[in-house]
Amino acid sequence: MATTTQNLRITALTELVTPAEVRKRHPVTDAAMQTVTEGRTAIQRILTGQDDRVIAVVGPCSIHDPVSAVDYARKLVALREDLSDTLEIVMRVYFEKPRTVGGWKGLINDPGLDGSFRINEGVETARTLLLQINEMGLPVGTEFLDTATPQYVADLVSWAAIGARTTESQIHREMASGLSCPVGFKNGTRGNLQIALDAVRSAARPHHFMGMSEDGRAAILSTSGNADCHVILRGGGGTNYDAASVDHLCDLAASDGVRPQVMIDASHANSGKDPEKQPEVLENIGRQIADGDHRITGIMMESHLVGGAQKLGDAPLVYGQSITDGCLGWDDSVTALRQLARAVRTRRALNLRKAG
Hints:
Blueprint: H1 19-25, H2 30-47, E1 54-59, H3 66-82, E2 87-92, H4 119-135, E3 140-143, H5 150-153, E4 159-162, H6 170-178, E5 183-186, H7 194-203, E6 208-212, E7 218-222, E8 229-233, H8 243-255, E9 262-265, H9 278-290, E10 296-302, H10 330-355
Parallel strand pairs: 1-2, 1-10, 2-3, 3-4, 4-5, 5-8, 8-9, 9-10
Antiparallel strand pairs: 6-7
Pathway: Metabolic intermediate biosynthesis; chorismate biosynthesis; chorismate from D-erythrose 4-phosphate and phosphoenolpyruvate: step 1/7
Protein name: Phospho-2-dehydro-3-deoxyheptonate aldolase
Domain DAHP synthetase I/KDSA: 44-335
């Protein structure tokens, strides 16, 4: 029977391909599974203090061109191998972009970059790219924004982030409680730390909520809780990467019964959205690490083949340059990561002297 009260503002309803169908067409390979498993284990060991290395989540602000993403991954996997004694390098592979008002929402939502919103194509493109990168031996990290997305790609993700706009969201905390990988929660856009700490505590608990099964049916999901969650300092209302900010966050965490540790995002508000300031932020973080601070377990850096950013719609697009936030260019990224690696080695030597 027709209704005059339902879906009045829905202009189209298209059937979504199911996660089971996508995973059947693009199954996880043994090589990819090994990369994911080893990446998750390494990150967990760093978070629990069993490994003194530092996690480095590095890569483009967002993926808009899978070809340039693969080129970037080839460079990064070589650097990962070179710095493996000090850094656990994870490639930032972001397919979903939160928007304050409007704009391109990422490769899954609009893979054609043209407002055609071919989402079925987007989820397949995302899974294909994640398989390629993992098969190189390079673990990946992503931000989960739409709560349906993990069923399509989460088996290929070693680390996940919940963004500043969604850290306070109950459904994202519930989702994180069921993810199979470690998860970082960013502080709020205005710098609020407590919402990130509350998110870590909430995600560690079991939850029951509505979601989607692998065959695309509505389902009730029950989770065991995720003990591998942590806070990411990303600035907001100013910067918060300095030693005093780390002390403040860790004091709050300890008082809340959360592990006093932190990952620091060198981009976003911590760099004033100026990609060229990221090395300055990382240099400060490196000094804290070299001075012996073990509470800093990781960093994030936005990096691409070509520095800066361009606007979607520019013709032709510059190959290997971000169409969202500006990124640090490849050569400068290598310099910054090598400097961070030296800081970890200095901290290690300091600990050996103390132990002796």
